[in-house]
Amino acid sequence: MPSTLARAAFAFVTVLALAGCSFLDGELLDGELMPSLTGDDPGGRQPSSRSVTAPPAPPVGQTNFVPPGVTDAQRTGKRVEQMRGDLRRMQTDISAQNQTLQALRTKVVQNAQRYQGLIGAIQSRLQVGTTPGNPVLVAQLNDAQGTLNALEGDIAGMNDLANRIVESNSLAAFVLESTRATYGPSGAVDDDHRQLAILEDEVNRTVVLIDRLLNELNQDVARQTNYVGREQRNLSALSTAVANGELYGGSLANRAWLTSAPAASQPLAGPGNLASRRPLVVIRFDRPDVPYANPLYTAANEALTRLPEAVFDIVAVTPQAGTPAQVAMQSIAARRNAEDVAQTLERMGMPRDRIGLNAMTSPQAQVPEVHVFVR
Q1: Is residue 57 in some structural domain?
Q2: Strand order in the sheet with 355-362
Q3: 284-302 pLDDT per residue, tens
Q4: Predicted structure pTM score
């Protein structure tokens, strides 16, 4: 890098190719792409417009679970009447549980719509540009977090409801078994058997209804839980975007293979190996407050799109030139900058066990740098 660039008023974030990865675009393999701090492409290409919206909330079930009712009879034995009473109480409980479910579903839809509106407003403001830490966006972000917490409360209510439905299901199975067992005793007349057959049919229909209710409720819980977990990660990345006044995208955790083997079990590449590899990103800290977050997010997101199991090595690079005291001071600065870059990736959603920290010196570096490698 020419020394005139190293002394320029602007610091550059250099996005390079992944070493040894042939799947990257030819443009990146052929040369360096050096977007300036303003995001303009020095090659004259217009940056693509990136509109980021929160993924739509998953739907909730639409079924209204209405019990089939219980047939009255004038002549039945005491045992049959007792079972019929058990069935009525069970169906009353199911009706109440169904009402609770429909109310919870309404709350989920309302909270999800409010959350989507808040996220859309924040992203629209970031899209056109805003100041770092805009208090209006911070307030909207806090409101969005509160709404997402309310969704978590709705999910907790659904889980409590599911537990109550499981109890009703156990009672239904007991009533069904008792109904079938009542056929056995001698001395029963044909009308008794006819009434038992009707009761057994109604119990069976109630059992099926409870099974459908529980299955649909569990599906609602699973979908909403996954959605809230994903959006909690996205909110963390969005909070970083609001703090910097720049639009990013969703959490990098949504790109990563979170179910893969932890990176901590893999040996991190040493400085000697890193020196021979080509970095994904080079950040030159030749002035305070280098705005590297947006280019870093773009590069990391692209890397994870191509290589979802990627591990990022963050390397503090210290210039070799200068007195021992100057080299020591620059080494401290480079390490501090590397820690900041690692924390920025974490806030963007990258799992900590997929980030490694290293340090090395370089005769080419003229200011403290941070190199980001991917493997």
Answers
A1: no
A2: 13-15, 281-284, 369-374, 312-319, 355-362
A3: 998 888 888 888 988 998 8
A4: 0.65
